[in-house]
Write a structure and sequence with these properties.
- There is one protein chain.
- With 440 residues, the chain is α/β, with parallel strands linked by helices.
- It folds into two domains: 336 residues, Rossmann fold; 98 residues, ANL, C-terminal domain (GMP Synthetase, Chain A, domain 3, 2-Layer Sandwich), CATH 3.30.300.30.
- It is built from eleven helices and 21 strands.
- Strands 4-3-5-6-7-8-9-14-13 form a nine-stranded mixed β-sheet, with helices on both faces. Strands 10-11-12-15 form a four-stranded antiparallel β-sheet. The chain has a four-stranded mixed β-sheet with strand order 20-19-18-21.
- The structure holds 5'-O-[hydroxy(phenylacetyl)phosphoryl]adenosine.
- The site of 5'-O-[hydroxy(phenylacetyl)phosphoryl]adenosine (DLL) has 21 residues, from helix 6, strand 7, strand 8 and strand 12.
């Protein structure tokens, strides 16, 4: 697999910034944070009111730690100011909008100035370089184009890095396989669940993706596990790298793993300030402790965001990284706090179940979790799928289910129902996979 790898050098898109000593980085952050707070306070009525209620003003910020005196921003604040109420610039200075899918209620709308789009392209190019993608590479971009930030975000970053972009977007999976084979892409950008779908469709078409030149996978937009990484590396014959972001903050490219260590995602601290809080008490947690990620934008012009509660559960690491970058690492996002299930007192995220299931003998890496009520308690039933070449008699399926149940019990410590399904019965992802069906 590593034959087609030509990138071990820690190539950096912004070397001076990426290796900036931490004290200088902190100075830069303080300066930019002041400007960001001032912009929000002066131009966005929501922030003026929220700061007034909290009894703080931008001038109260003397050190980075003072940020904790400022109020949080939540998704409902964006909804309440739908569509353009959070903009700090007149609408005609906003060159682009994106929006969340808005499965419940109004979507959340985000806006970008010319400068914001420019910085986003830079940060995504930086992320791609960090992931081992190089100028001149052909980048197959299977993130969805449209209001979702994945497609256009990866597109602009790849162009900025000097790559050739194939803007296929999501869907039409057979055609994706044909294009990957015919064009010889070096990098595949997709959600991990859609990358898996591509792998499966390719196998069905008799195309061996692992034998193609593709050597990097830039996967993100949903939680995924180390087991899934091993599966994708093996089936696609590439190195999978995790990329993180969210539309409220920018889109993809807020943080990215380095190809060297693949151990936590470097959060680009010259543009964002990262905190971890306890989601119950809202108190800041110490470095290394797991909690909810909170992000403040430092350079966004059209829509500065102060202390955004992402609902994503993770921890931060300030340990030096083998690649030499000084920016902190956001360790793999376990899941969103709204996806956390409490099974007889044990907190569980879908990605933990995935980590146990993917790679188990005879099982395909597809699963779904049904949440239901069992009396007063929450319970889950896990749907798994057997591989095409495994016996499919009711007894054989029951044996597979029993084995998976046993593994879930011994690794995570929870008891749950497990149902084994036949090949193809679990829906395949076209973008962000639906892992949980809530029947409560
Ligand atoms: O998913 C932006 C993106 C596009 C990131 C392409 C990476 C690649 P949203 O649709 O606003 O934006 O969804 C953001 O997705 O709060 C997380 O819950 C989840 N998420 C994003 N990246 C990761 C990741 C894009 N690497 C929400 N690991 C976030 C786990 C992720 N969860």
């Amino acid at each position: 697999m590593l034959d087609k790898d030509r990138s071990d050098s820690p190539f950096m898109f912004d070397r001076d910034i990426e290796t900036m000593p931490r004290d200088r980085l902190a100075e830069m952050q303080l300066d930019r944070l002041r400007q960001s707070l001032k912009l929000a306070f002066d131009k966005v009525p929501h922030y003026r009111a929220a700061f007034d209620r909290a009894g703080v003003a931008p001038d109260d910020l003397k050190t980075l730690d003072d940020l904790r005196r400022f109020p949080f921003t939540v998704k409902d604040d964006l909804r309440d100011n739908y569509p353009f109420g959070m903009f700090a610039l007149p609408r005609d200075k906003v060159l682009r909008v994106h929006a969340s899918s808005g499965t419940t209620g109004k979507p959340t709308v985000v806006g970008y100035s010319a400068g914001d789009l420019d910085r986003w392209a830079d940060l995504m190019a930086r992320s791609m370089a960090c992931a081992g993608i190089r100028p001149g590479d052909l980048v197959h971009n299977a993130y969805g184009y449209g209001l979702f930030t994945g497609g256009l975000g990866a597109h602009s970053g790849a162009e900025r890095l000097g790559c050739t972009v194939v803007p296929v977007s999501g869907g039409g999976t057979e055609r994706q396989v044909t294009l990957l084979a015919d064009f010889g892409a070096a990098a595949l950008c997709a959600t991990p669940s859609y990358a898996l779908n591509i792998a499966e469709v390719a196998e069905g078409m008799g195309v061996d993706i692992a034998a193609l030149p593709v050597r990097r996978g830039l996967f993100g937009a949903e939680p995924w596990s180390e087991s899934m990484r091993a599966e994708l590396d093996r089936r696609l014959g590439l190195r999978s790298v995790d990329v993180y972001g969210l539309s409220e903050i920018m889109g993809p490219g807020v943080a990215c793993e380095c190809d060297r260590a693949r151990d936590g995602l470097h959060g680009w601290e010259d543009h964002f300030l990262f905190e971890i809080i306890d989601p119950e008490t809202l108190d800041p947690l110490a470095p290394g402790e797991e909690g909810e990620l909170v992000i403040t934008t430092l350079t966004k012009q059209a829509m500065p965001i102060i202390r955004y509660r992402t609902r994503d559960i993770t921890r931060l690491s300030h340990e030096p990284c083998a690649c030499g970058r000084t920016h902190l690492r956001i360790m793999r996002v376990t899941g969103r706090d709204d996806d956390m299930m409490i099974i007889r007192g044990v907190n569980v995220y879908p990605s933990q179940i995935e980590a146990v299931l993917v790679g188990l003998e005879g099982l395909a890496p597809h699963y779904q979790i049904r949440r239901y009520r069992d009396g007063a308690m929450e319970a889950i039933a896990v749907e798994i799928e057997v591989l095409p070449d495994t016996p499919a008699s009711p007894e054989a399926l029951a044996a597979r289910a029993a084995e998976a149940r046993h593994h879930i019990k011994s690794v995570i410590g929870i008891t749950c129902k497990v149902h084994a399904r036949l090949p193809g019965e679990i829906p395949r992802s076209q973008g962000k996979a639906v892992r949980v069906i809530d029947e409560r």
